[in-house]
Amino acid sequence: MSRDFTDYRDIFLNDRPMMDARAPIEFQQGAFPGVVNLPLMNDLERQRVGTCYKQQGQQAAITLGHDLVSGAVKAERVQAWVEFARAHPDGYLYCFRGGLRSQIVQQWLKEAGIDYPRIGGGYKAMRSFLLDTTQQAVAQCDFILLGGMTGTGKTEVLPQLANGLDLEGHANHRGSSFGKRATGQPSTIDFENRLAVDLLKKRALGIEQFVVEDESRMVGSCALPLPLYQGMQRYPMVWLEDSLEGRVERILRDYVVDLCAEFIAVHGDEGFALFSERLLASLNNVQKRLGGERHRRMMLLMEQALAEQGRSGAVDLHKGWIEGLLKEYYDPMYAFQREKKGARIEFVGEQQAVVAYLRERISRRA
């Protein structure tokens, strides 16, 4: 008798191990944190079975599937499932809707001597549960935005708060035109799933008020869930401040020193060249908004700084274009935004004061 599990809350709260039997292309389009893809069929096999189903019906498709996944191919896949099940006796398997594919995987595992539970409703039901989780949080909880000029360290504040939601962390992107990292971004679906799990876990701890950084709809290539983004247009705000010097130093560290080290860690000898390309491309991203003269001036400063960094490792020349971009581009833009959102700002201060205020705010409303 098959065992189906449908307590999705338990699955995500406790990081239950999961084996995804969908094809790799489905997995890449969207998956859950920590899940392992061990497909019943690869992409080509799935495509052939799908075509057969449309042309000849379900039984012919099932027969073709068993023909494609047989012999040594079947043995290899069953062995991978067995190894996962033995390594994760508290885990589960699933396919897209909790249908035929997961039934077959479950049956073949049983024939190999392992009775392994599957998730009823599959990926689709769990995805719906997480979308509902985010919608409920937006509807039921209080949110406060963390705003501030570029480089004030907004992302540094969030980890200091039990109720901080790190949207940029979940999106693996720093949120600006210069925000791309050496490692790629998740799909928007993966981003939404990560955020929902974070909300679920924090709410399970009794947190009903969240701090999020003031973002545009897109964090790199990841789109914020629409209900959250719409709420962000009216949530109250705290405004983080820092000196120009402090902001220049922070940007130098994050977008030059640390990002360069990240590229070298990921790409080895090619890392510095790829980091340089990324930085120059980021400046070109804002060329139209900068205007020709300012763009050429900043580009020259950046090229000189990169040449010196490549030659000697020194990074101080980067401060020239960083300070120029802040004064001439980012600061006027953020000053306008602050004025527009001024009625919603309930506290202004530097990092230590803002952290203290937000901690006191959550304890006051607990």
Question: How would you describe what is shown here?
Answer:
- The chain has 2 domains: 4-128, Oxidized Rhodanese, domain 1 (3-Layer(aba) Sandwich); 141-366, Rossmann fold (3-Layer(aba) Sandwich).
- It is of the alpha/beta class.
- The strands form 4 sheets. A 5-stranded parallel sheet has the order 7-8-6-11-12, sandwiched between helices. Strands 3-2-4 form a 3-stranded parallel sheet, with helices on one face. Strands 1-5 form a two-stranded parallel ribbon.
- The chain has 17 helices and 12 strands.
- The mean pLDDT is 93.
- The two termini are 47 Å apart.
- 60% of the residues lie in helices and 11% in strands.
Report a brief summary of the structure:
With 366 residues, the chain is of the alpha/beta class. Helices cover 60% and strands 11% of the residues.
Q: What is the 3D form? A: globular
Q: The CATH topology of the largest domain, please?
A: Rossmann fold
Structural class: alpha/beta
Radius of gyration: 25 Å
Name some characteristics of this structure:
366 residues; alpha/beta; Oxidized Rhodanese, domain 1; Rossmann fold; 2 domains; 5-stranded parallel beta sheet; 12 strands; 60% helix
Topology:
Layout (H helix, E strand, L loop, with lengths): L3 E2 L2 H6 L4 E3 L3 H6 L6 E2 L5 H14 L1 H11 L2 H17 L4 E3 L5 H12 L6 E2 L2 H19 L1 E7 L5 H4 L6 E2 L1 H5 L16 H17 L4 E5 L4 E2 L2 E2 L2 H7 L4 E4 L3 H24 L3 H15 L1 H4 L1 H21 L5 H23 L4 E5 L1 H15 L1
Parallel strand pairs: 1-5, 2-3, 2-4, 6-8, 6-11, 7-8, 11-12
Antiparallel strand pairs: 9-10
Helix pairs in contact: 3-4, 7-10, 12-13, 12-16, 13-15, 15-16
